[in-house]
């Protein structure tokens, strides 16, 4: 059996910057416990690795408990609403902002659109951490849609509007909704109003599709490794599975059913943009051990 790891897989640029920031803070902490609000990224194996170095995952309710202790709180890759920063300031906590730069840029663009009087429409998951942060920058005065049906029900097509996306959503679905909205707006908007689309889907996610499709086709079986709550993981897994029906989603090596690999000559291992390369290598080594035994 030949086992290969997808060379295009691994952390995206934004996650790399976030993890680098955390590593730097942990290194300078002198064994002081450092807290992060929510999962730093949607990958349990990477979270476990960082927790062994002293990172502690907390909730907003835990923030007052940090007063008089380390007094440091990390904002994770998904970002936070302004209220979180205000609460930290009131508690006298030091904020270390590890928000993905693309998410931070999206927050700023949505804030500007809101202040400029646009009806803000966002393709995303209303209760996803990234969207909660985004909703905060525009006082929750935005319309979050999961599909066209939501838009037809919630959007006022007579108002000037700007259409964005959560960074980890399906680019193809975003474009489909965009075209449908353009057609709807064009028939109802007055001359002095306009409908503007800002493609804010993470380029790293949709740029991976071509290489991922080729990788899926080149293997008999593909193991797709990602956290179960990873949005981009679900999208990229779907891309793989469309090309190769023998693609299986696993979060860890305990999820592997070795019957999947029984007659396979070529097995490929790939993952989400929040799946570390070191864990893909670990999966490969575990399969190799199993074959030896």
Overview of this structure, please?
- The protein has eleven helices and twelve strands.
- By secondary structure, the protein is an alpha/beta fold.
- It folds into three domains: 96 residues, 4-hydroxy-3-methylbut-2-enyl diphosphate reductase, catalytic domain (Cobalt-precorrin-4 Transmethylase, domain 1), CATH 3.40.1010; 88 residues, 3-Layer(aba) Sandwich (Rossmann fold); 100 residues, 3-Layer(aba) Sandwich (Cobalt-precorrin-4 Transmethylase, domain 1), CATH 3.40.1010.20.
- Strands 1-12-10-11 form a four-stranded parallel sheet, with helices on both faces.
- The longest helix is centred in the middle third of the chain and has 16 residues.
- The two termini are 14 Å apart.
- The relative contact order is 0.15.
- The mean pLDDT is 91.
Quickly list its features.
Cobalt-precorrin-4 Transmethylase, domain 1; 3 domains; four-stranded parallel sheet; Rossmann fold; flat; single chain; 12 strands; 293 residues
């Amino acid at each position: 059996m030949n086992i290969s790891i997808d060379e295009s897989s691994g952390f995206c640029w934004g996650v790399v910057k976030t993890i680098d920031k955390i590593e730097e803070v942990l290194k300078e902490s002198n064994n002081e416990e450092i807290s992060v609000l929510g999962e730093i990224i949607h990958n349990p194996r990477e979270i476990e690795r960082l927790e062994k170095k002293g990172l502690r995952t907390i909730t907003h309710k835990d923030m007052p408990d940090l007063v008089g202790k380390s007094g440091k709180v990390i904002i994770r890759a998904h970002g936070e609403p302004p209220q979180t920063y205000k609460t930290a300031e009131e508690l006298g906590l030091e904020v270390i902002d590890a928000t993905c730069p693309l998410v931070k840029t999206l927050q700023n663009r949505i804030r500007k659109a809101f202040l400029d009087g646009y009806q803000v429409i966002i393709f995303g998951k209303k209760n996803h951490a990234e969207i909660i942060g985004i909703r905060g920058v525009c006082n929750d005065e935005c319309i979050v849609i999961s599909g066209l049906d939501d838009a037809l029900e919630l959007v006022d097509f007579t108002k000037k509007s700007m259409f964005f996306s959560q960074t980890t959503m399906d680019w193809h679905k975003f474009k489909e909704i965009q075209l449908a909205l353009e057609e709807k707006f064009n028939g109802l908007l007055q001359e002095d109003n306009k409908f503007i689309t800002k493609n804010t889907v993470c380029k790293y996610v949709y740029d991976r599709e071509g290489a991922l499709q080729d990788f899926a086709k080149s293997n008999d079986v593909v193991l797709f490794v990602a956290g179960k709550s990873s949005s981009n993981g679900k999208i990229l897994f779907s891309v793989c599975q469309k090309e190769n029906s023998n693609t299986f989603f696993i979060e860890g090596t305990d999820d592997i059913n070795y019957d999947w690999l029984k007659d396979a000559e070529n097995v490929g291992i790939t993952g989400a943009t929040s799946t570390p390369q070191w864990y893909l290598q670990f999966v490969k080594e575990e399969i190799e051990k199993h074959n030896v035994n």
